[in-house]
What does this fold into?
Amino acid sequence: MEIKKDMTIGEVLRVKPDAPQILMGFGMGCVGCPSAQAETIEEAAMVHGIDVNKIIEALNQ
It folds into this structure.
């Protein structure tokens, strides 16, 4: 399944087992945060000041 920026972190975690390591590698410690179930990858990237396209590229490799 292709990961898209409008997917919630919770969705990504369910479909991509190595997503936590990838997200934490970008400095996103929100993997265990309760808001991760409703926050999109794009929203989390904006909050953390990270280019969402780089995250999506890494998640889809």
